[in-house]
Structure of Lipid-binding protein:
Amino acid sequence: MAQPGGEWKFVIEKQGIRVYSRAVPDSKIKALQVKCTMPGSVAQIVALLMDLDAATKWVSHTKSCKLVRKISPSELYYYSEVSLPWPLENRDFVARIRVSLDPATRIVTVDAPAVPGWVPVRKGIVRITQSTGTWTLTPADAKNTQVQYTLQVDPGGVIPAWLVNSLSAQGPIESFTNMKEQLKADKYKNAQLPF
């Protein structure tokens, strides 16, 4: 996948959630970056990201999210279907989540690129094959985490780039707002990092 080029340009801010975009060489679809301070520890956020059953409650337009294979407590493969409004076809993808910790800085990185194979392509659903998503989680203080999320995706199929780019800020605002609510759940209160 082509690497983004140029400067990040501010798009929107809502409830402390800032969304930026930038052009990507050889792509009509812009890369996105989201920055905010999230109430919760790094471990709580990792626990939520690894909790696939919760994804439909907070990730914008997620119709389903299922475990394909768990490699270790810090690495898994999952399948997700994304709902799009008619007349567009839904999208799906398989992603590999890998969580890593820099012991010196205590910064946790969660990589979630789309990977080929693992699940057969389904009729009437467009498979996303080009997608990279990276979460960078930096402890801000005892109760808060600086979150930076970068996404570069090619939705595949027939979908106008202007439409994707015009709607792209809406999804992160919705997802991050929902994420803040999900982090209040008791099951994440005493979360520990998976390594």
Summary: The radius of gyration is 16 Å.
